[in-house]
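Review the following:
>
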Amino acid sequence: MKKAIRVVIARLGMDAHWRGSVVVARAIRDAGMEVIYLGNQMPEAIVETAIQEDVNVIGLSTLSGNHLELAPEVVSLYQDQIE
């Protein structure tokens, strides 16, 4: 049996925008992927969960513009962990 793609979905920081992340999480779950939905989280928690859960994809959602600072932090922290 083929192993399902594992995806973590999180909203960056304190962003109150939730609908988009829930819609995407449901759509990819319905497509057969395994979804770990975190809700609002900071980069450290997102990366920690991604490593612990051995995910294939990290999905980030934000509407507030804080992605300009927080998304690069997620990438940097993740790269530090996998190297």
Q: What stands out?
A: Helices lie at 19-30, 43-52, 67-82.
